[in-house]
Amino acid sequence: MDGLRARADDGDDRAAVLLAGLLEEQGDLEGAMQILRAQVDAGNEAIAWRLPELLIRQGRLEEAKQVRRFGLNPDGSAASS
Q1: Which fold has domain 2-70?
Q2: Residue 6: CB partners within 8 Å, gap ≥ 6?
């Protein structure tokens, strides 16, 4: 996990996706969201679509719609316009 985290921090898309998936499987949904949000904040559009998918799996449909439509606020919350 530490190796994946280091690679994700260095901008490795695949490592970020794998790490987020592992965290989600372990029940650490906030940790998975933090990994994906950090990638989105860094401008990594290649995996930006995974964040709304995670929100949908958590039952947070409205937030997922907002993220898909408007992106994120600087604080990491879903933007509304």
Answers
A1: 1.25.40
A2: none
Sign for the pseudo-dihedral over CA of 30, 69, 14, 59? positive
Where exactly are the structural domains of the chain? 2-70
Provide the residue type at 48 as one letter: A
DSSP codes joined into one string, 16-27: HHHHHHHHHHTT
DSSP letters spanning 20-80? HHHHHHTT-HHHHHHHHHHHHHTT-TTSTTHHHHHHHHTT-HHHHHHHHHH-B-TTSSBP-
Per-residue pLDDT of the chain (81 residues; tens, 9 = 90+): 889 999 988 888 899 999 999 999 999 998 998 898 888 777 777 777 888 888 898 899 988 888 777 666 656 666 666
Q: What is the pTM of this model?
A: 0.74
